[in-house]
Design brief:
The complex is a heterotrimer. Chain A is α/β, with parallel strands linked by helices. Helix content of chain A is 41%, strand content 20%. The mean pLDDT of chain A is 97. By secondary structure, chain C is α/β, with parallel strands linked by helices. In chain C, the strands form 3 sheets. In chain C, strands 3-2-4-5-9-8-10 form a 7-stranded mixed beta sheet, with helices on both faces. Classes of the chains: A alpha/beta, B mainly beta, C alpha/beta.
């Protein structure tokens, strides 16, 4: 099929609709508003529902309701909105409800500004709300992946009964690139546990309350088993030129695109530089990093944050090699040259 | 309301407090227009002095049933015209 | 003798297994609590209407968080105050379902104040039961938004003071001012008369939803003997003497009879319909492109800059789409963040046979400047031997760099001679392709329509491309 030249933010919505998503609840925020706008345009045309909620909190709770009702449902926002949504995400995780949440990250803290940052890593990857839970987190770095990973997000959410986050940034969202879309629409699967407002499912209960401490502990252990299984089976990453690398660059989203140029330029000069791009942030590619560290490979982690993913890299490396951080914040996006200068110090 | 029809051996109309479900709040006692419900001297297994039918005077009006907060603590029996 | 029995409604479970413990037939509510009475009225109505199977009941945060122990319906437990938002999600999925949001005063009127107002304002086709007992029962008798002035609670130990806590909030009155709700009534649970009135209100509110008439809201003044530290009969008297004067029992709004019922249409869409609606059906197969063209294609790191309105962004889109159709990799990104400077609108466009790394062209090998500030901003960034295309109609200076290739072309004048100043961008692309020969300029013809809102201007824009080509042939002929 020929490709469509399309913005990442719009590719999310077309991907979602092709994944069988029928409901979108959201609140406008720059730089994620184009997702809501595309949803508002396309969902009704396909018999779906778009509701602009009164708040981020209401939006995520509408998602909770629609998910409990068995629909494939999504929302999208940016950092300040996601902070508000954390309550609802904790309830979704606790009640084991699947949904897709797109976070087009902007710079913080507080109101910050609307330029790209990756400062939501901790709040999306580590949980973010109260309690012992994790989101599955996917990190696209192209318009094609904005579509593909959104579709994957619906499948993973349903498979593991867990919120799945597409963690992206304003650049990936604003950029137009060719996207090849699937030519058939998936059907939302029937969910035996959900509430279909009929006699067959009325004995179902969607809840996150367990008054009995033993039952709640059991529930928590069950969740942890699930996260462990996700860690074992769902790690996705892209690894380039790692076989002989002395140092491997690690970055996700827009940063990984810049790192690709950095790596190519250093390779062209005979420097043994590799690139690891985590596609899943939870589950994080712990083993591959650990294995490389064991062989003495060092790492330069580039992040548009104060160094949030670098903590996961350090845990994976476990002191066996050196981990350097290149950190930018406030919406400042480094050029290829900026990172090349940083890298030259370590090579 | 389509109510269940059963065969009974006692006089109708009548009411019954299911004693082990009563929390002794006294709302039925207060609101019964015929004043035909009273507190028992006994405690039930929940630890309450439960309400009980005095044995006569019930008109089957159902007020006690609707004033009672417990789903199953009160039953009211009315005569079915045949 | 045959007797009819008034007893526990069938919409309750026989045994409350979810409650656990040994008391599986009693509720967790305190003696004399109004929740039990309202539960009974709702369960009876659901049973009588034969609607329990279709019902999804929302258990809120508050004493009624365990409503799911009792109702033999679909059950969902939700975050504090968010029940109307969850109800919205449920109902928007199952139009045929009966969705009940059951909430207390802290839940509905304090932490969930916005959710209820907005669900009411949207006229969600749901039923809301609002239990107002002027106190937080579950957490130990704290002040509620409906706590009366002077009323002592554990967080208003000296009595509620308006100067510190404001006045008790009248939710029914507020909801009734909204356009969408069809039925708003406040009732009480203090004697048979008021309970009977509540029973009718519950039925009407559910009937409205069954008939798809829209949003119904029943506020119920309900005793909390434990929270108020009174006997159950005294707490009913307290409602009569203290709450009802402030919270009058009344139908605040009822347009149930005249409300136009919601109509829902559920249909499925075939894959071809889906693709058509998503604008993907016309894409067709990928073009067969000569491999040597791809392999020899010189990567173009383009920056296109000018005033807003000069078609800078759409020039980039057309160029990227054109190259994409030739199976090249492309990226387009508008000026954003630190890239935006010098009062210009600009975009970065990369065309390459290779996978594209950073989509930002910090050092372009092709710079197109439609105005002077753009030349000022980006001239120094161009790589050595790069190309700068200058709109000489507007840019009032020459390029200072001596190590780059420069074309001066009066784009705006050429376009205005055609009658469409906005087509200057297409004149430029024609000139660019004719000068560089990286692709046949005629390939632009197919991609112009995607960037044009006014389809009537397609021919003119194609002509603009041709004019750009003509200018290059006349002024910059390649030897």
């Amino acid at each position: 099929m020929q490709r469509e030249l399309i913005k990442g933010n719009e590719a999310v919505i077309k991907g979602a609709l092709l994944a069988g998503c029928s409901h979108y609840f959201g609140y406008p925020i720059t730089p994620a508003s184009e997702i809501a706008q595309a949803a508002a345009y396309y969902f009704p045309l396909l018999g779906g529902t778009f509701v602009q909620a009164e708040s981020e909190i209401a939006a995520i709770n509408m998602v909770y309701g629609a998910s409990g009702a068995g629909a494939r449902v999504m929302t999208a926002s940016s950092g300040p909105g996601l902070s508000l949504k954390q309550e609802g995400i904790s309830y979704l995780a606790g009640a084991q409800l699947p949904c897709v949440i797109v976070d087009v990250m902007r710079a913080g803290p507080g109101l910050g500004n609307i330029w790209p940052e990756q400062g939501d890593y901790n709040q999306m990857v580590k949980g973010g709300g109260h309690g012992n839970y994790k989101n599955i987190v996917l990190a696209p770095n192209s318009a094609q992946e904005m579509c593909d990973l959104t579709i994957l997000a619906f499948d993973l959410a349903d498979q593991y009964l867990n919120p799945c986050v597409v963690l992206t940034d304003a650049y990936i969202g604003q950029m137009m690139e060719p996207v090849e879309f699937p030519s058939t629409r998936k059907q939302a699967p029937y969910k035996e546990w959900a509430l279909y407002a009929d006699d067959k499912t009325k004995s179902n209960l969607v809840t996150s309350i367990f008054m009995n401490t033993h039952l709640l502990e059991e529930h928590n252990f069950k969740l942890q088993d699930k996260y462990n299984e996700i860690q074992r089976t769902e790690v996705r990453y892209e690894l380039l030129n790692a076989d002989d690398a002395d140092i491997v660059l690690i970055g996700y989203g827009i940063v990984s695109r810049i790192l690709l140029n950095v790596m190519e330029n250093f390779r062209a000069n005979g420097k043994k530089v590799g690139l690891l791009r985590p596609i899943t942030l939870f589950p994080f590619p712990i083993d591959i990093i650990g294995n490389m560290a064991q062989k003495g490979v060092n790492f330069l982690v580039a992040e548009l944050s104060n160094g949030q993913m670098v903590d996961d890299v350090r845990l994976a490396v476990n002191g066996k090699s050196d981990v350097y951080l290149y950190s930018r914040m406030g919406g400042a996006v480094p050029s290829v040259k900026d990172i090349e200068e940083a890298l030259s110090q370590y090579i | 309301m389509p109510q269940e029809i059963i065969e009974v051996a006692f006089e109708l109309p009548s009411m019954e407090v299911v004693s082990y479900l009563c929390k002794g709040c006294g709302l039925c006692v207060t609101h019964c227009p015929q004043k035909c419900i009273e507190f028992s001297d006994q405690f039930n297994e929940l630890g309450y002095k439960y309400a009980q039918y005095k044995g006569e005077g019930c008109t089957g009006c159902g007020i006690c049933f609707y004033c009672c907060p417990e789903p199953g603590a009160i039953k009211v029996y009315k005569k079915v015209r045949e | 003798m045959k007797a009819s029995v008034l007893q526990k409604p069938k919409a309750f479970y026989d045994k409350f297994e979810r409650k656990g413990g040994s008391q599986l037939e009693t509720t967790h509510y305190c003696p004399g609590c109004g929740h039990g009475i309202l539960h009974k009225l709702i369960a009876e109505a659901l049973a009588d209407f034969d609607m329990a199977d279709r019902t999804i009941l929302i258990s809120p945060v508050g004493c009624s968080v365990f409503a799911y122990y009792y109702f033999d319906t679909g059950n969902i437990q939700v975050a504090h105050g968010r029940a109307p938002a969850v109800a919205t999600g449920l109902k928007r999925v199952h139009h045929n379902g009966i969705v009940i949001s059951y909430q207390g005063d802290g839940d509905l009127a304090a932490i969930g104040g916005d959710e209820i107002l907005q669900a009411a304002n949207r006229g969600e086709n749901i039923t809301v039961f609002f239990v107002n007992n002027a106190i937080y029962g579950m957490t130990g008798g704290q002040m509620a938004p409906t706590t009366l002035v002077g009323q002592k609670t554990t967080t208003s130990p000296y009595g509620r003071k308006p100067e510190n806590e404001g006045y008790p909030i009248r939710m029914s009155e507020i909801i009734a001012t909204l356009e969408a709700p069809v039925y708003v009534e406040r009732t009480a649970l203090i004697d048979f008369k008021t309970i009977n009135r509540t029973k009718r209100a519950v039925r009407k509110a559910l009937q409205n939803q069954i008939e798809n008439k829209g949003f119904s809201f029943i506020e119920v003044l309900s005793p909390c003997p434990t929270g108020w530290k009174m006997t159950p009969p005294d707490s009913q008297k307290w409602i009569e003497q203290n709450m009802i004067p402030y919270f009058p029992l009344k139908v605040f709004k009822d347009i149930s009879d005249s409300a136009t019922p919601f109509t829902y249409t559920d249909r499925t869409y075939s894959d071809s319909e889906v693709l058509n609606i998503l604008g993907l059906s016309q894409l067709g197969e990928r073009k067969k492109v000569d491999q040597s063209f791809l392999e020899n294609f010189p990567t173009q790191n383009m920056k296109i800059a000018g005033f807003g309105g000069q078609g800078v962004l759409s020039a980039g889109v057309v160029m990227a789409a054109c190259a994409m159709n030739e199976n090249l990799e492309v990226s387009w990104i508008p000026s954003y963040g630190p890239e935006m400077r010098g009062g210009t609108a600009n975009c970065s466009v990369i065309l390459s046979h290779h996978r594209i790394g950073s989509p930002l062209t910090t050092n372009p090998n092709v710079l197109i400047v439609m105005n002077t500030p753009s030349l000022d901003a980006f001239e120094d960034d161009v790589v050595k031997d790069g190309l700068i295309i200058v709109n000489s109609s507007i840019v009032d200076r020459e390029v200072k760099r001596k190590d780059v290739d420069v074309i001066y072309i009066p784009l705006t004048e050429i376009a205005s001679r055609l009658g469409v100043v906005a087509a200057a961008n297409m004149v430029c692309l024609g000139a660019y392709l004719e000068y560089t020969k990286i692709m046949d300029y005629k390939l632009l013809y197919d991609t112009i329509p995607i960037a044009l809102k006014k389809k009537s201007l397609i021919d003119l824009n194609i002509k603009a491309v041709d004019e750009g080509v003509k200018y290059i042939r006349e002024h910059y002929p390649r030897s």
